[in-house]
Design goal:
Elements (H helix, E strand, L loop, with lengths): L14 H9 L1 H22 L4 H28 L8 H18 L7 H29 L1 H4 L5 H28 L13 H25 L18 H13 L1 H31 L4 H29 L1 H15 L2 H7 L9 H40 L4 H13 L4 H12 L13 H26 L6 H18 L6
Length: 488
């Protein structure tokens, strides 16, 4: 902690609360991995839908999110039921999301280009809307579970940990089981049936995680913030509630930073399978090995994010990590283009990319954890300024930013692949060297520019630890003054 910073007594949440709050993110991690890693590759490289059309269909679903995310956030803020504000939506999301997820990877044969586009767009929207019903209300609970500046970082860390565990487990099973080489497909990544079986497994992950999170936090419903006095929901009132949220400068800059960082992450994830397959020439088993580096990176972020933000403040920590990502993220690509990296097939290459992945993932995950924790602090500032408690609406924009990874990221990646005319369905070794070099040129400068924009926006965030403590003190005084006096 910085010298001279007042130190409040930390508010620790029970381990069971951290576990059940976090475990729901297995659903989000599974969905994100499916969208960011496999979906574009499956429709473009396996089914033959153009990169632009594939990316556009996924982007259409993101545009739907732009409406449904804040709408569900506002609805959950105002909901009054015996299940509280958040849990009715969480329970309702499980089955529709699992069914849409399975359908997404089971398109009927003979659809053609237009049919594939419509199928992809329809069920991508279905998955995203169902995910919104769970993700927005459950994410909003972090600001209700604790007001502690640092404990919020811990709760978000658990959420990120389980999200990545879900995504990595889904990815590992995909590479090692369903997309492994077979008699019919020397490269299992080109086997259409493998994706359908993988989707059924992912749907089981999603369904179980949502119900476990909703059921495990059910007992906390009486402790969560009560809804405001009942008012009929109207679009006019929704617009009135949304306006001050969007006018909050700290929040607006944080949202823009989160969206751009998520686009960078999504772009990297989507083209990552192309880069690992064709640029580095890794086999399916070698790509699965890279996941071990990701696991280590996640554990490092989980363990160190809170100590880092306690020492350097959340804003300074984000700026430092974003600067590092700008310099370090695309470094291997640039080094290969300069002829410095080992040649494909050299065992050293796998170890270098493994180490790079570990460090970069730790940085990116730590940035995401800090972003989400910062949003919870903005909720308190907004309550002081407007008198409204709007966790759902505030969470919705950061949730939208997270979804931008597979929406805008997929669109940018798909267009980039079409611009360089990257071949579809090609085996390793069949792609011309100039196409592989063009792939590197798309990835390297693209990541650098996106991370630089993230740095610019996060530098404009203004809430500090000391300022947040003053906000909590002012809120406590206001609540005490509004409470009826105790009878003599």
């Amino acid at each position: 902690m910085s010298e001279g910073t007042p130190q409040a007594t930390p508010q620790r949440t029970p381990l069971s609360t951290r576990f059940f709050y976090g475990v729901g993110s297995v659903a989000e991690g599974t969905k994100n991995t499916a969208f960011n890693v496999f979906l574009l590759f499956y429709y473009n490289n396996v089914l033959g839908l153009s990169g632009t059309a594939s990316g556009l269909a996924i982007f259409v679903a993101l545009c739907v999110d732009a409406v449904t995310d804040p709408l569900v956030g506002a609805l959950s803020d105002d909901t009054r039921t015996r299940l509280g504000r958040r849990h009715p939506y969480m329970y309702a999301s499980a089955l529709p999301m699992a069914l849409c997820f399975v359908a997404l990877f089971h398109p009927p044969e003979g659809l053609g280009e237009q049919g594939l586009f419509l199928w992809l767009a329809t069920f991508a929207v279905g998955v995203r809307v169902a995910m919104t019903l769970f993700m927005i209300p459950s994410s909003a609970m972090v600001a209700e579970l604790t007001e502690d500046y640092d404990e919020r970082t811990t709760l978000v860390s658990w959420r990120f940990l389980f999200g990545w565990i879900g995504g990595l487990s889904f990815s590992f099973i995909g590479y090692q089981v369903f997309l492994a080489p077979s008699e019919g497909f020397a490269d299992g990544r080109l086997d259409p049936s493998g994706y359908g079986d993988l989707a059924i497994t992912g749907a089981c992950f999603i369904f179980g995680a949502i119900l476990l999170c909703a059921g495990g936090t059910h007992r906390l419903i009486p402790r969560l913030k009560p809804p405001p006095p009942a008012q009929p929901f109207t679009l006019t009132r929704f617009g009135e509630e949304l306006r001050p949220v969007l006018q909050n400068r700290s929040y607006a800059n944080l949202v823009f930073a989160a969206i751009i960082a998520s686009v960078a992450g999504g772009f990297s994830d989507v083209v990552g399978l192309y880069v690992n397959t064709y640029f580095w020439g890794f086999t399916t088993s070698q790509i699965a090995t890279l996941l071990y580096g990701v696991v280590v990176g996640i554990l490092v972020a989980f363990a160190l994010t809170r100590p880092i933000t306690e020492r350097f403040e959340k804003k300074r920590a984000c700026i430092g990590m974003a600067t590092f990502a700008i310099l370090f993220g695309p470094l291997p690509i640039f080094l290969r283009l300069l002829g410095v990296m080992p040649e494909n097939g050299d065992p050293l290459l796998l170890w270098l990319i493994l180490g790079h992945s570990c460090i970069l993932v730790a940085t990116v995950v730590a940035i995401g954890i800090t972003f989400s924790s910062m949003v919870a602090d903005v909720v308190d500032e907004n309550e002081l300024e407007t008198g409204r408690r709007q966790e759902g609406i505030f969470t919705s924009a950061i949730a939208f930013a997270s979804k931008a990874t597979s929406g805008l990221g997929s669109l940018v990646a798909g267009i980039g692949l079409d611009v360089i005319a990257f071949p579809r369905g090609a085996e390793i070794g069949e792609v011309a060297p100039e196409k592989i070099r063009a792939l590197g040129l798309v990835v390297g400068p693209g990541l650098t520019g996106l991370y630089l924009l993230t740095l610019i926006f996060v530098s404009r965030y203004r809430i500090t630890r000391a300022g947040h403590e003053k906000t909590l003190e002012a809120l406590a005084e206001r609540r005490a003054a509004a409470s009826p006096p105790e009878p003599a």
